[in-house]
Amino acid sequence: MKTGILLTNLGTPDAPTTPALKRYLKQFLSDDRVIQAPNKLVWWLALNVVILNI
To answer: Which of 10, 32, 37, 38 could share a disulfide with 43, CB 3.0–4.6 Å?
Structure first.
């Protein structure tokens, strides 16, 4: 079996600022195709309380 690597561009923040980066991360990490969390409430809390407030 051959192994391959797929490179994709998933976008970038609108600007090199903290608010733009937080908006981008919130949208990107809220996508079910990117993060498949078994418990959506726990993931939402982790994203909004911990990750986006660092």
So the answer is: 37
